[in-house]
Design brief:
2 domains; elongated; 7 helices; 178 residues; Arc Repressor Mutant, subunit A; 7% strand; mainly alpha
Length: 178
Amino acid sequence: MSLSHAVLTSLIEKSSSGYELARRFDKSIGYFWHATHQQIYRELARMEAAGWIESSSAPDAGKTRKREYRVLPAGRAELARWAGEPSPPMDLRDEFMVKLRADAALGEVDLRDELRRRIGLHHEKLAHYRAIEQRDFPAGATLSRLAQIHHMILKKGILYEEASIAWDTEMLAVLASY
């Protein structure tokens, strides 16, 4: 996946300025596809040059250079083309797994504090995801197709955090037993 497809998706959801897009990105797609604001601005320029989006002076721009971006038919077609392609399963590339292998090989590295730190971080993110779930997807509410899809994406994040906590806790017990 390229950043352009994530940006196209976000702009189809709502046309916006680059700044607004970057802030929304941080609060939605950014949970599973990270990009800096600078990367998003560069991608906007590239996509506009490709004819996928266009920008115009934002209504509230005043004397600034604030631009509002919207997706053109070519951008919609590109996003539909890309979304229809098969996606490879996620590859696990985790530096910490290599550190655990190093600990196993060396026998002298103590990673228990790092595991405790990671458990804490996973708990924080899980609490954040659950707060979003309570706010946006109340129990018993009838959800639109769009909302159901968004909820399922959030559920994957919740399950990931829960599994990470369980695994890290089990690994901590293994390390603590020696």
